[in-house]
Amino acid sequence: SGSAAAAPLPEEDCMKLNPSFLGIALSSLLAIDLWASKRLGVCAGEGSAWGSARPLMKVIEVSGHGIPWLLGTFYGLCQSDSSAAREVLLNLLFALLLDLVLVAVVKGLVKRRRPTHNKMDMFVTISVDKYSFPSGHATRAALVCRFVLHHLVLAIPLRVLVVLWALIVGVSRVMLGRHNVTDVLFGLLLGYALYSVVEYCWLSPLSAPALFALW
């Protein structure tokens, strides 16, 4: 019985008693993320610190929503009589659809719940929108921002406004309590990277003649 008492602990028990440095770091990061997100959710409700700014934040929320962007791009595609404009708009439509699918897949895999202080009064949601990681608005804002800056000729003040809009959309998600800080940061990075995929798969009359024949 004495030798049995002195037997070493199983490896899995040692792991539980001595968590890895990575595990401690991730837990600490998660705690900081939740704390900061709650402190920054100043428009999460009418009674919040900046509750009076909530209607403005919800307007910004709609400006980054997928439906207005999809409908607007599709309408522009139907009304355009320029082959160059149709090519740009068709690729923007492709980018927006790719963004929706990718964000939905990641949300379904990660399944991170939205912050507890979030009011579920969002503009037009689907089933995966109950999850928060990553922020679809932030992903779309970064994607559209980079797309516009590369394919539209804009004066410098307008280019600055486009970048500010993308950043404000991301910040508004945390202020409204819709997302945690890491949801938005990852969303912005994902949207920025997604544009590179769109550029690599760029649709043109040569690469996708059937699509252009429809228009």
Protein model, in words:
The chain is mostly helical. It has one domain (21-213). The chain is built from 10 helices and no strands. Helix 5 (66-79) packs antiparallel against helix 6 and helix 7 (136-151) packs antiparallel against helix 8 (156-175). The chain is globular and about 55 Å long. The N and C termini lie far apart (84 Å). Residues 11-15 have low confidence and may be disordered.
Tell me about the biggest sheet?
none
Which descriptor suits the 3D outline?
globular
Question: Which series of helices and strands comes N to C?
Answer: HHHHHHHHHH
Helix fraction by DSSP (H/I, runs of at least 4): 55-70%
| Main structural class | mainly alpha
Nearest-angstrom radius of gyration?
Answer: 22 Å
Report how far apart the termini are: 84 Å
User: How many distinct beta strands?
Assistant: 0
Number of helices: 10
| Uncertain runs | 11-15
Strand content: under 5%
Number of domains: 1
Mean pLDDT, as a whole number?
87
Oligomer: single chain
